[in-house]
Specification:
By secondary structure, this protein is α/β, with parallel strands linked by helices.
Length: 284
């Protein structure tokens, strides 16, 4: 069970400069950033993480400084970090500025949800930690794994029309549209995004779902519990009339493995490509 940092008073103030990227005490915010840091071999310097950083297990065992989008300065300051590495979704900005004012350097890692964007995140993280050589090696490993994925994609003769849901709480379904991270995930695994006509993520109505006519429904693991279990997904009113629901073609994917666009991206994409191939065999 992860320890949650709770403070009444915090009063650590450090220097504002980074001496040779002093990372004896590092706080990472964002699951992708945390995974990259550990993959670079710097996990031993991490003293705390945000609540989304549950992999690897060593990170999940560390103190939790809060949800990456709703951070507070006090729990982070309490950890007396030499450096905070913050993913693109970290905030609010006022808290990051408060950390800087307290003398804690904050380095932001930009995010583009694509294979190229992952390579850039690894490079930026390596540069921030003065681990450029390790970053180059990790980028090469990730690139080779993604290249191997191409062979599996080539086996998909009839790419399925896939619908990716990113949340399903309180009966409201949010679908991945064009240009979203979900769109990239589907395409990279060899499928076609069934949702067209809008960008980003938007609520999905029953009419829109029927119009999209997905062959396969993809649901991140973090949303399955909110739905009531995997068996309930095809029964949702918005999805019941779709080909995917009628055929029971539902795939649950590890949220961190795919949506985080971290160093294990190829592993998650390969699992999704396998699901596409299974769908193809079942529907021939």
């Amino acid at each position: 069970m992860r320890q949650v940092v709770v403070l009444a008073v915090a009063a650590w103030v450090g220097g504002s400069s980074i001496d040779a990227q002093a990372t004896d005490r590092l706080v990472t915010v964002g699951s992708d950033v945390t995974e990259i840091v550990f993959a670079l071999g710097a996990g031993g310097s991490v003293v705390a993480v945000d609540s989304t950083s549950t992999y690897p297990p060593a990170a999940d065992a560390l103190p939790d400084v809060g949800y990456l989008r709703q951070l507070s300065a006090e729990p982070i300051i309490a950890m007396a970090p030499d450096l905070v590495l913050a993913g693109a979704d970290a905030g609010p900005l006022s808290v990051l500025q408060q950390l800087e004012s307290a003398g804690i350097p904050v380095i932001g890692i930009t995010r583009e949800d694509s294979a190229q964007g992952l390579d850039e995140k690894i490079e930026q993280t390596g540069r921030a930690l003065r681990l450029d050589r390790q970053a180059s090696l990790l980028s090469r490993e990730v690139g080779e794994a993604l290249a191997r994925l191409e062979g599996k994609r080539a086996l998909i003769a009839s790419p399925p029309r896939a619908l990716l849901l990113v949340s399903a709480g309180q009966g409201r379904l949010m679908a991945a549209g064009q240009g979203s991270s979900g769109d990239h995930i589907i395409e990279l695994a060899g499928g076609v995004n069934a949702v067209q006509g809008f960008a980003g993520y938007k609520p999905l109505s029953a009419e829109a779902a029927v119009s999209a006519a997905p062959d396969l429904i993809i649901v991140p693991s973090h949303s399955v519990e909110a739905i009531g279990g995997e068996a309930e997904i095809p029964r949702l009113p918005q999805l019941a009339a779709t080909p995917a629901a009628s055929g029971g073609h539902v795939v649950v994917v590890d949220s961190l493995l795919l949506l985080g666009f971290g160093p294990r991206l190829a592993e998650g994409e390969e699992q999704l490509a396998d699901a596409f191939l299974t769908w193809e065999r079942r529907t021939r």
